[in-house]
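Researcher: Structure prediction, please.
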Amino acid sequence: MDPLGDDTSSENLDQAFLALADPVRRHIIARLSKGPATVNELAEPFEISKQAVSKHIQVLEHAKLVTRSRDAQRRPVHLNPARLEALTAWISQYRLVREEQFRSLDAVLRAQAAATGGPQAKDPP
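Model: Predicted structure follows.
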């Protein structure tokens, strides 16, 4: 079993998407996509306390979206790319289903237009 648990279980998905629902946490994720950072560095752009930023980080940690390491006196926060990839894969599976449904609908509309002598629908690019 994956050391992070089943990333696509209902509970794990709920935690991850609830964590990402907050704009401060999304900003933290965006910042961490550029590299690890300390709480002080993550708190700089916000007009909230470092303690509040720490609580946001704890929510992201609980959702397994970020991890922390120890580097001497520093405790940098790191993005967990495997967790984000699992969320992206979960979303993609539904996008692919919808795309296939739209392709099927396009084929039906083209066939119907050809049968009635109407204008031909163009194939999608």
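Model: The chain is about 60% helix and 5% strand.
Researcher: Thanks, that helps.
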